[in-house]
């Protein structure tokens, strides 16, 4: 992509977010667009595929803090017309020609790139900014015969990171799993190797800019630099484009990756696959692929809020079992175990079964937390009703709320005394 393309594209508008949007807002907007326009969701839809690619390109810049800062600075500097933008600086040049600037000689914007004006070594300048944006080094390349400007070719650029979602069952999240992941995403063209030229041919160096990707342009007393229009700022020209990618060096293909989901993965956790994102440009490395894991809820088990390695389970018990104590059989993620319920246990008591939680690769092991809950029958037989009435009479002197009443009365006396 040329420098002009990058600065003139509104990535915020592409994702439908404000310029001060947070990183989370940008991520949510991108994921929504990606899901709606994914080639798997809309196969054969050219507009959806273009929208998918454009959103990925925008997210690759705005999700990177450093790239986003450079992009914002470049758009503020050039997009708003400062220094005449990329069009040759008509407004600024006219002012200088009228003699109203007070400059005694010609002003060369090449000075801004750290190449003139006695700039001290290491002082940076606009060249440092454009070097990060458009691929040039210190003293950004201006191409052509611009005095004092660098002539190095645009440097390689890393590909954008890509994010996708997978959904797994609760048992797979606890024990870990390996699953195939099918993606339809931009990848380096295998036919041309990413250079955009038809096999058997090679891109040639652009004669207009000498391979720098940027040329100088004079307007009155000013000299401006802009991306070379003949090569679109790439520094090379493809005379015979690759039939697979049309000269872009990138093609959208379906590929299948094997993703290892570790035991104990949390809902919403991101797993990074290095080098599996979008391909880089000019031979640069590929970005990373981030897999966001979504875990389905389980009918029986849950995860402890205090320790995600501990599993939770609620087991119904009868009143006699709580009073007299008992041994019950409870399910686990890998079988069954016997659990002793102590006599006199209260409904809601939590008992711990050691080592029956998440088993992590590093050796850490969670527990199973079993909460016993009193099961109250909705209907009673005549025999059960008689037995319950007899129990009520036998325990008439027992007030389960006596302590609560005592505390309330004590609080009332304290309030009266004060």
From TrEMBL:
Coiled coil: none annotated. It comes from the Bacteria. Residues 136-161 are annotated as: Disordered. Residues 176-254 form the CR-type domain. GO terms for molecular function: ATP binding; heat shock protein binding; unfolded protein binding; zinc ion binding. Homodimer. This is Chaperone protein DnaJ. The lineage of its organism: Bacteria, Bacillati, Actinomycetota, Actinomycetes, Pseudonocardiales.
């Amino acid at each position: 992509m040329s420098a002009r393309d990058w600065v003139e594209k509104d990535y915020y508008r592409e994702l439908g977010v404000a310029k001060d949007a947070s990183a989370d807002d940008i991520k949510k907007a991108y994921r929504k667009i990606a899901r709606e326009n994914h080639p798997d969701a809309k196969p054969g839809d050219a507009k959806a595929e273009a929208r998918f690619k454009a959103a990925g390109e925008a997210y690759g810049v705005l999700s990177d803090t450093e790239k986003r800062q450079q992009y914002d600075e470049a758009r503020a500097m050039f997009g708003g017309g400062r220094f005449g933008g990329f069009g040759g600086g008509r407004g600024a040049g006219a002012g200088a020609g009228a003699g109203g600037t007070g400059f005694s000689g010609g002003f060369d914007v090449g000075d801004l790139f750290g190449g003139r004006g006695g700039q001290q070594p290491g002082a940076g300048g606009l060249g440092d900014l454009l070097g990060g944006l458009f691929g040039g080094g210190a003293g950004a390349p201006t191409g052509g015969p611009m005095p004092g400007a660098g002539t190095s070719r645009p440097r390689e650029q890393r590909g954008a990171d890509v994010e996708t979602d997978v959904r797994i069952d609760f048992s797979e999240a606890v024990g870990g799993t390996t699953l195939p992941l099918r993606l339809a995403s931009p990848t380096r063209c295998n036919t041309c190797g990413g250079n955009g030229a038809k096999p058997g041919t090679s891109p040639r160096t652009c004669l207009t800019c000498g391979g720098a990707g940027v040329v100088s342009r004079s307007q009155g007393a000013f000299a401006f630099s802009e991306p070379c229009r003949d090569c679109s700022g790439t520094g090379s020209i493809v005379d015979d484009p690759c039939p697979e990618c049309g000269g872009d060096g990138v093609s959208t293909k379906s590929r299948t990756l094997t993703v290892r989901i570790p035991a104990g993965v949390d809902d919403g956790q991101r797993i990074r696959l290095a080098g599996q994102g979008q391909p880089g440009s000019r031979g640069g490395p590929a970005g990373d692929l981030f897999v966001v894991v979504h875990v389905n809820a389980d009918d029986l088990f849950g995860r402890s809020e205090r320790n995600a390695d501990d599993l939770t389970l609620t087991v119904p018990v009868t009143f006699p079992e709580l009073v007299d104590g008992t041994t019950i059989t409870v399910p686990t993620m890998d079988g069954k175990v016997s659990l002793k319920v102590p006599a006199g246990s209260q409904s809601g008591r939590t008992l711990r079964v050691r080592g029956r939680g998440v088993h992590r690769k590093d050796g850490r092991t969670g527990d199973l937390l079993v909460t016993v809950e009193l099961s109250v029958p909705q209907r009673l037989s005549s025999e059960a009703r008689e037995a319950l009435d007899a129990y009520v009479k036998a325990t008439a002197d027992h007030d389960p709320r006596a302590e609560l009443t005592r505390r309330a009365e004590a609080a009332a006396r304290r309030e009266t005394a004060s």
